[in-house]
Amino acid sequence: MAVRHETELYAPVKAFFENLGYEVKGEVRNCDLVGIKPGQQTPLIVEIKKTFNLALVLQGMQRLKLSSNVYVAVERNRAKKGAVNQRWNELIGLCRQLGLGLLTVTHFKTKPPLVEVLCKPVASSDDVYKTTAIRRGSRKEKLLREFHARSGDHNVGGSTRRKLVTAYREKALRVAAALQGLGEAAPAQLARTAAVSDAAAVLQRNYYGWFERVARGRYRLTPFGEAALSEYAEVLQQQGIETAAGMAAEFNESSEQLQIADASVGYSTIVAEAEDD
Fold first, then answer.
1. Of 7, 177, 239, 274, which is most buried, counting CB atoms within 10 Å of its CB?
2. What is the pLDDT confidence band of residue 83, given thresholds at 50, 70 and 90?
3. Strand bridging mode 101-106 / 69-75
């Protein structure tokens, strides 16, 4: 059963590594999937493509600059006879030479997807990779900082042309949610309310156009900020932060439930009166 988008491979690969004890998040610093296992310093990185191609190999090679634990994952579609991604023995040999791991995902119509490890990453002793390992430190630290700064997995690995929920966007959302509740506020007040120590920098950079300076040291939310709080209400709710849009949705849901309950009571009363007659 062929997949249409790379994102369809993300969920089974994520579940596979979560079962191995990894905490997994998607689209972290341009990596389709990043996993961290407690007690291990080396991050897991997986790059996902529908088919095995040169672009995937090049991505995998780039990720080796961040970690030695890098896999490439592709769909295993048994219907494609003679296709390049069916030459598994040759592809396994190539990945081993490069130090990459290779995963395949097989989708079925009536069964859960099957994830298979065709080969595991192999650390190379080549001088080039020794040099890469020396430079890897700072890049890996940036990757780990971004991973740990995110509150959860809000992105699907393999996504393209979509807004990603990064650690910075989460931070800006917390500031925006606090500002929505306060109306107007100073950076110091927002830093305390939103628990964002660098709230002043977020407001001054105004990367997304969510904030407006109304006076010296005073900010308010723009219409773009209000729209963002509605768009990302679920992300904030997962952090226990309520927005006006989220509370309105809950109110509407409660009202609908009350209307259904009232209708049920009315119906029961009518039935009872009819039975008495």
1. 177
2. low
3. parallel
